[in-house]
Amino acid sequence: MEEKPKSKINLNRIDMPRQDPKVRAHNYNEVALGYTDEMAIQEATRCIQCPKRPCVAGCPVNVDIPEFIKAVRDNQMEESVRILKSKNALPAICGRVCPQETQCEQVCSLGKKGAPIAIGRLERYVADWDLAHKKEIKVELPPPTGKRVAVIGSGPAGLTAAADLARMGHKVTVYEALHTAGGVLMYGIPEFRLPKKVVQAEVDYVKSLGVDIQLDSVMGKLATVDELLEKDYDAIFLGTGAGLPMFLGIPGENLNGVYSANEFLTRVNLMKAYLFPEYDTPIKVGKQVAVIGGGNVAMDSARCALRLGADKVYIIYRRSRTEMPARHEEVENAEEEGIIFKFLTNPKQIIGDDKGWVKAMECYEMELGEPDASGRRRPITKQGSEFIIDVDVVVVALGTTPNPLIPSTTKGLEVTKHGTVVADEQSGKTVKDRVWAGGDVVTGAATVISAMGAGKRAAASIHEFLMGQKA
Amino acid sequence: MFKIVTSEKLTPVIDLFKIEAPAIAKKARAGQFVIIRVDEAGERIPLTLADWDAGEGTVTLVAMEVGTSTRKLGQMKAGDSLHNLVGPLGLPSDIEKFGTVICVGGGVGIAPIYPIARSLKQAGNKIISIIGARNKDLLFWEDRMKTVSDELIVTTDDGSYGRKGLVTEPLKEKLEQGKIDRVIAIGPAIMMKFCAQTTKPFNVPTIVSLNSIMVDGTGMCGCCRVSIGGTTKFACVDGPDFDGHQVDWNTVFDRQKVYLKEEKDSLDRWESCQCGKS
Predict the structure, then answer these.
(1) Rg (Cα) of chain A, in Å, rounded?
(2) What are the φ/ψ torsions at residue A172 (nearest 5 degrees)?
(3) Which of A204, A208, A183 is nearest to A194 (CA)?
(4) Min CA distance, A64 vs chain B (Å)?
(5) Does pLDDT of A6 surpass 80?
(6) Do residues B45 and A280 make contact, with C-beta atoms less than 8 angstroms apart?
């Protein structure tokens, strides 16, 4: 029998074991190792089950957090899985890549005392338990509604929308341009942060709900949104993400050895270039690599470069540490592994050798001025501060914008000057009849969980429309 | 999986495959390409469509065996399946009535120039085709090109068939002889560069098809970027057709060489594996 939770507040947040930095810097195995059963129960027992449940409101998909944690505490794992999955179709992914520190954990009642419940780690624990104990769980689906929905893009937004719509009895087909489902979860986030078998297992779960996933299907080319609406589908959800890389526009950017982070990570993750020549796709392994940018994608690129065998890997960021958009945890991981951070540094040009290869980068020193529109202090170039860093590979990780393929081939969609599709924030409804959109294609590059939240809300709105309650 | 309906050796190193892909065949237009992956460990490689048949539901690809991926492809037979086939990608070629158009196809570039010449012919243009190869053994589709051309000139570098010399020589003569409204050139980058150089003094619009190294082929990675008139473009979504007079050819040549070493290592490894098998 489990003891009743102690009323005394316990502020000993249980750490999650991680691979040793010196070891992990040379392998692609997962960095964070997950809780043991004991750790999970200990951490779950810390939750005071407060009646206000601020964590639920802090979660973009409103997972019933206290309930799934209580079930862990009581060692009712199947019940915990059921609670978690009723709101979140991809918990093993979210448990790993959600920025819990700015969402559920930020508002946790114990957070005020400096030790919020490790909700993300517990979510991962429950999801991994589910994957490890996979039983033939019959997913109970309502009778078919006879309605058909096409979801374009199989990233976090699309998979979530597809799962929810299928669970409401609709027939869902997901179209994916690449040869593997998962979108950014497959091509972008590296194996050591999100093992691909975890993604595969969650994709399989979505398929088990009756969702048909069509790979190798570039919509806009193979068929337009209008053709899909005319012929086969009652509604369409666009979850095409933000896949178009931004470059700096500085001299030398087309030299050999300069990659967009998208290309670098796609080669490594999706095409498994780290296993070259066993896998056919190559990647240029630099001795000295500069990654430009301060977000999670920059951290991922830098840590991949290190694992590929680079001697020195720099993060070049034009502001200071405080303004970095990357998750604190990932910055810390990168630092532990030996990534060199060059703050207040901005590239002026990339310098090539006579064969067209990168050999160095010229940078400016920067200083911070007044806050800009983003609320962060604006970086200002220090004139005459130029200096040279020797590098042979440069990865540009400055962000991405939506791919124009769908907007440019679809009549009647409204698109902003940033290339994002205009959609209602709550419902995801676009101005075009029977078309919804959500995730990065609407917001510009953001997080996995916010895309999932958008997919979820759009699915609810599509369902309402299909069932004739609202047009 | 995409089933190969027929395979044919056009030359000792150039293979033709007709592949089941009804959805792509329905949408394909001249100048577009597909990306294929031969097997699970394979690269994604772009191949410009050589033909398609919407009724039959097939696309036709022609590839030269140069590296591991195309050598693997070359071993495939009718009944085998490609792991992946995605398309149609890229913008179609501009097809309208220009007047007299010269279509130049060099080496394996004869394959993609064929449907473009055919479409241009159907649009009412007078088509002068110039096709060239290093020697007679590497030449193919002379018969097909004849059916879509008002005039066909064949060259080989060594003179083993047709006229001895490079495609640029008859190209220049034709430009000198009469009014040419447009030139389309597809082949090795160096050939396309010299074709563009040849037409430049005559001020004839010249289109080239850039077959850059690509990964996704949908604008996602930027691997295929090229500099066109000083602006960076992605061959996969902004092309593959570009104004040959605006292309920064040095960047094109440099970027083709990024993986020379890796390509060689990979091929050596593959070849030694093949020896073990036989």
Answers:
(1) 23
(2) -120, 135
(3) A183
(4) 36
(5) no
(6) no
Among all chains, which residue has been given the structure tokens 């992990």? A24
Strands B84-89 and B33-37: antiparallel
Query: Which chain A residues are within 8 Å of B69, Cβ to Cβ?
Result: 280
Q: Between vectors from CA B103 to CA B100 and to CA B104, what angle results, nearest 5°?
A: 145
pLDDT tens for A71-106 read 999 999 999 999 999 888 889 998 998 888 888 999
Task: Note whether B68 contacts A: Cβ–Cβ < 8 A.
Answer: yes
The confidence score (pLDDT) of residue A157 equals 95
d(CA A286, CA A63): 43
A276 interface with B at CB cutoff 8 Å = yes
- Which tokens belong to A139? 């997913």
> In this structure, how many other beta carbons lie within 10 angstroms of the beta carbon of residue B79?
10
Structure tokens at B129: 């085709």
| Integer Cα distance of A452 and A439 in angstroms | 7
∠A107-A31-A288 over CA atoms, to 5°? 110
Q: What does the pLDDT average to over A247-266?
A: 95
Q: Is the pTM of this model over 0.90?
A: yes
Closest Cβ opposite residue A282 in set B88, B250, B266: B266
* Angle made by CA atoms A179, A180, A185, in degrees to the nearest 5: 135
Neighbour order of strands in the sheet with A212-214? A212-214, A171-175, A148-152, A235-238, A435-437
- How far is residue B81 from each of residues A309, B56, B143, B255, measured CA to CA in Å? 36, 17, 29, 31
Interchain contact, B257 vs A218, CB within 8 Å = no
